Amino acid sequence: MTATARAIIFTISILLTGLTLFLVLPAAPALELKPVGNASTTTPALKIQLAGGNVAPQPSEEQNQPPAPEPEPEPEPEPEPEPEPEPEPEPEPEPEPEPEPEKAPEPEPTPQPEPKPEPGPTPQATEAAANVDTPEPDAGSDRETRREQVQLNAGDDADVDNYLSELHRHLSRHYDYPRRARRLQQEGTPVILFQFDRDGNLLDYRVRDSSSHQLLDQAALEMLAAAEPLPDVPEGMTGKTFTYALPVRFNLR
């Protein structure tokens, strides 16, 4: 209920209370003054009537009662919290590419000892001689050929061992494990047979024993070709041309 409505109701209550008191209370008796002495010479009596309005109105019960307390406003319902959005699933990280295995240290090729040639032309000497257009040698020329063409083997003498060590160090500088062969997990030890002169020039070379992997066989031949010219043959070694079988290891571990 607004303040204006309460004021109107309160005013109406006061008016009704005053009207009720005015109607209910009896009129006050008039005071009559009796004449003294002779009526003819006496002033007529005056009538005085008390007005009922001089009586103070009593407060009504409605005025004594305190105003009714205003009803407390009902609390507005709190808005329901909006549901939090579900977090989007984080994308799974892409697997990192596997690092390529580090290049293995270049191992020095270890010479494989071969049996010493028996008197007579060795298979390598015969094959090398077949590459040269020369007449069929006799016994004397065969001995001369053996002196000119030497099959190198580790352990023959100190000069040969020293030269082979120098040759291995020189070849290892050009050793390269093919990257594709690494990815394919290819391993093997091809043996290359090559012939060279005293100045280190290659005269002939080929794969004698295959590793069963063409990539590794080709890498061994490319290593030999890249290493030309080979180290010069020292004066202490006899012969004009030299043949050597070199195993080249390709091992991932």
TrEMBL record:
Q: Which GO terms describe its cellular component?
A: plasma membrane protein complex
Q: Which UniProt keywords apply?
A: Cell inner membrane, Cell membrane, Membrane, Protein transport, Transmembrane, Transmembrane helix, Transport
> Which membrane topology describes this protein?
Single-pass membrane protein
Where is this protein localized, as stated in its record? Cell inner membrane
Quick one: where is this thing mainly located? membrane
- Composition bias of kind Acidic residues appears in 71-99
- The signal peptide here is none
- Glycosyltransferase recorded as keyword: no
Fetch the InterPro entries from UniProt.
Answer: TonB-dependent_transducer, TonB/TolA_C, TonB_C
Where are stretches of biased composition, namely Basic and acidic residues?
A: 140-149
Q: Where is this region: Disordered?
A: 52-161
Q: One GO molecular function term? A: energy transducer activity
Q: Which residues form the TonB C-terminal domain?
A: 162-253
What Pfam families does this protein map onto? TonB_C
Q: Where is the composition biased (Pro residues)?
A: 107-122
Q: Does the keyword Lipid biosynthesis apply?
A: no
GO BP annotations of the record are: protein transport; transmembrane transport
What is the similarity comment for this entry? Belongs to the TonB family.
Q: What is the protein's given name? A: Outer membrane transport energization protein TonB
Q: Which organism is it from?
A: Marinobacter daqiaonensis
